[in-house]
## 1
Amino acid sequence: MERKVFGYFRCRTIDPRGMIQQICRCRNIISLQFLFEEKSWKSYRYDSVAECREVLMNGVNIMMKSFSMCGLEESQKVFNDIYSQYVYNQDCYKSNYFAHFINLLISRGFDYEMNPDLMNKSTGQTASIAKEIKAQKEKIVLDEFDKFYDVFKVEEEKIKNKYRDYEMLCMKEPYDNGRNEFFREYEEENKIDWSFSCGKVLQVEEKIMTWDEWKKKLKRMYCKFGPVYDEINKLKHDLVDEYFSEVFADVIHLLCIPMEQIEECKDLITDPKLLVRYFNMKRYFFDPKMTQKDPLMEHISKRQDFDIKSFSSVSNQIIFLHKLKKAVGIDERTDIEMKEVMSEETADRLWEEYTSMRRIRSKGNAFLEPAGVKKNIIVMYKDLFGVDIINTKRTTKKNKDTGKLDKKTLYSMNTEYYEKMRKVYFNSCEEEYEPEEVEDE
């Protein structure tokens, strides 16, 4: 099929080769137009594949002091060479997505004509487009929710009434061994998933229950993970599949988002990157407090992957963040206020590990200065948990030595953002959610 093709590239996930591959899914292109959000250049990190491999292997050697996952020596060597070439290529492409895309386009036989008027600096149009797309997605979720909610409330009330009727019947007809058949027939006829008659709930050694015992048992129907809760949850699950787009429904199921949180969590439902940030927060902040153990080290140890990839994994970056905070006296995971200055020896060791793990343009050791440590802790928090995890406030403070006002930037945990994610976490826990006290300086 002959057709015109338009490509819109945000330069966030795929490299220029992937962009060309997407375009060429149309085999008979009449004309090609494209819009890039990012046309600026960035400094590259590696001068050669050999340098890239050396840096990556340095990181592997650091990590292997703690653990190693893959024991296949020959396979490791082959993979390390291939992976080093891949990382080097990605480093090249990231230096200028647009220029590399043009070069690849020409090499594939496209006749490229550049319009200088369209190559001017961005006026912010792409940013407004991204915001508009985000708003449209969230509106779709809310529109689907409105349709869902009308049906859900009607069906939910039917379920509640069914169990209320059953409760009233039980209050009129106290349990004894002679009433088993009566209850069984009623439960089957009305699809009551709560059986007094078959002994799922009652074990009273053939004794007739007192009224207080009876009422206590009936109340258990309405508790979390009781029959009413389970049946309403199943109703919600089925209706979510029916009324929400498949990708949105999958996220709602995955996070067990209740109806009252749909509007609050619309960004989490529609934004895959924010969803990744949530799971990073889950592993760093929430799981350790609930399980009384840190699952990250175990996760990396058991993960069946090559060492050269595991070193730069998100899990290992979170582990490094915890080490960096420990080195400046920060014990609490929700605390970002440094308590002490790390030694020069520790600064050199951690900087070597940090620069092997992440793309850093700075040539000097930023960890030798407290301001450099604080800055990189903030950077890691935003990268791993989302930019909204940190509140930033710019102020001035009088310098005692000069008498002048010095500019100062204050950072603190965004408790509202943190609690929002924590509330989502508790949706899949047996424990009830209660707000946590987080330092907000």
## 2
Amino acid sequence: MIKEKHIVWGLAILLLLTTVFDVYTALISPVFSIGEANPIFLLFGNAFILLIITVAFTVYVVWKLKKCISLHGIFLFILIALYLSLAHILGGWTNVNAANSYYENPEETVAKLQSATVADKTLFYFGAIFVFTILPIAFALFAFSMTSSLYAQRKERRLLVVNDMRKLSKDMIKLSRKLTEE
């Protein structure tokens, strides 16, 4: 059985590595300042503020996961950690693609990125976040809530099965003793 600390540390390391990948690929990209679509960067125009907020949110998610004791809360923060990691991977991937596009054709890439308005970038960013993180988390939480409800409603039936298994087990032990005595 996997221990709690291994799960939490594994998720924390995954989140940390994907965060570093995303931030590193963004900061070394030659088109970061004109191509970044993150609304925090668009609002403040500062990569350092974006980095601080990203790291702070990552630490918050890991801390909440470590402290949470409700089944729904644990599930939610594991989902957030996994989908946030996926979002960082996608962010890093788009950073690498933008840099490669720049190296292949700098003038065209810069012109294309400069032609995108803040509204265009924000719409793209929130659309990607919605499709790749919020929507899957909402579906998973909905499915988990329905599962939890059905599981709770079927408690009596599960207890009947467990009681039947206990009775069967006791009967088998009695039969086994009887056979060994003969």
## 3
Amino acid sequence: MSVDIRLIPKSEEWFNFYSSLCDELLSELDLPADLHGYVFDIWTECVLRVGRAPLPLIVDCVYVVAKLTGRRKSIRVIKKATDEVWGKRIDVLPLDRRKQKKRWVWEKKDLIQSSLDIDDETWNELVSEWHTDTGTEVIAPATYYTEGAE
């Protein structure tokens, strides 16, 4: 009987499987392969700890790393890329107000900042689009709706 390696968390094959999926997405987005290390380091520290499935978490990590390293891709572009690569559109950093008040990136701020060697100003650029003037989080940032944004 064959067992799908995605069902055996933290095995070497499991990590390799998701690493290859990360490579596929980076390639589809025309992002440099050297971002893989940053994406996968953050993903490895967060997977099974932040209440996000492994594949969508890779998508979140690609978005965050691309944006914080100056290689920004819009949410629409990333969702389209996930559809091209895996046959389904995956939401980027979704917020389900019934279950959570903040996105997972908040609890991993220190990890992300230290992994990418970014300052508070750069971090604030990332999270500013997810907030209203009252400090509550929005479901989707205004930049989501920008046509052709990359």
